[in-house]
TrEMBL record:
It comes from the Bacteria. This is Putative ABC transport system ATP-binding protein. Belongs to the ABC transporter superfamily. Residues 2-231 form the ABC transporter domain. SMART domains: AAA. The keyword Nucleotide-binding applies. Signal peptide: none annotated.
Length: 232
C-alpha cells in the first residue's frame, strides 16, 4: 500500500540537513496507523509527502504501486483526488457552503470516486447527496445541520463534515492530520471509533497523526517518527 525508501525532504536546497530523513517505511493495506512525535518532528511534512502535496527531495514514495516522485504535478493531483482522502488539521472547509455541498464538491475533482457512488445507485441524480447524508449520519451529524452553512457549526461538527468529505467515494487511503486536537478526551475516542467504522466499510487504510499518545492503543500499529528517522 505505502512504501517509502531512502526518503529525504528539504524545504530549501541550501538547507544543511533535511527536515525528514526516512530509510524505510511500509504500511500494509487496511492498517490503522497511529503516527506520533513531538511538535516539529515532521509529522505534517510526512503526511503531505504521502498525499503528493509536497514532493520528496530524494528517494522513492510508492502509494498503490505508483512512485509519486516520478509523476508530473497534474498527474499527482489527479492521483490524490482519486485515491486519497485527507482530513486537514484546520478542516479546510468552504464556510459559505453546507455540509452536503462541501462533501460532494470533492467528487467533482475525481471521476473514479464519483463513479463508485453512481454505480451503486439507481437514481444517479441524487446519488452523491444521498451518500453525503449517509456519511454525515454515520459520523454523528444529524439532519438538522446538513443544510446549514458550515461556518455556523461547532468545531466538533465541522470535524465530522471534514471526515465525511475524506471518505466519500471510498478512497484507498485516508490521511488524518491531528483531527481531534480541539476535542476533549471522551469525544476523541468516540470520533476515532467512527473513523474506524467508516474505514472498514470503505476498505481504506488509515494514517492518523497526533501528539496525544493516549490514543495509541486504539490503533493496529503505532509509529514514532523520531525513532523511525533514527534508524537511518
Amino acid at each position: 500500500m505505502i512504501n517509502l525508501k531512502n526518503v529525504t525532504f528539504k524545504w530549501h536546497k541550501s538547507d544543511s540537513s533535511p527536515t525528514l530523513n526516512i530509510k524505510e517505511l511500509v504500511i500494509e493495506k487496511g492498517e490503522h496507523i497511529f503516527l506520533h512525535g513531538p511538535s516539529g518532528s515532521g509529522k505534517s511534512t510526512l503526511l503531505a509527502i504521502l498525499a503528493g502535496i509536497n514532493t520528496a527531495t530524494s528517494g522513492e514514495v510508492s502509494i498503490l504501486d505508483k512512485n509519486l516522485t516520478t509523476l508530473s504535478n497534474t498527474t499527482r493531483d489527479i492521483f490524490r483526488a482519486d485515491h486519497i482522502g485527507y482530513i486537514f488539521q484546520n478542516f479546510n472547509l468552504l464556510p459559505y457552503l453546507t455540509p452536503i455541498e462541501n462533501i460532494t464538491l470533492g467528487c467533482e475533482f475525481s471521476k473514479s470516486r464519483k463513479q463508485k457512488i453512481l454505480k451503486k445507485s439507481s437514481n444517479k441524480n441524487s446519488a452523491l447527496q444521498k451518500e453525503a447524508i449517509r456519511l454525515l449520519n454515520a459520523l454523528g451529524l444529524t439532519a438538522q445541520y446538513h443544510h446549514k452553512d458550515v461556518a455556523t457549526l461547532s468545531i466538533g461538527q465541522q470535524q465530522r463534515v471534514a471526515a465525511a468529505r475524506a471518505f466519500i467515494g471510498s478512497p484507498e487511503l485516508i490521511i488524518a492530520d491531528e483531527p481531534t486536537s480541539a476535542l476533549d478526551t471522551n469525544n476523541r475516542g468516540s470520533f476515532i471509533k467512527l473513523l474506524f467504522e467508516q474505514a472498514k466499510l470503505s476498505n481504506s487504510t488509515l494514517v492518523f497523526v497526533s501528539h496525544d499518545e493516549t490514543l495509541k492503543p486504539l490503533f493496529n500499529r503505532s509509529i514514532d517518527l523520531i525513532n523511525l528517522q533514527e534508524q537511518v
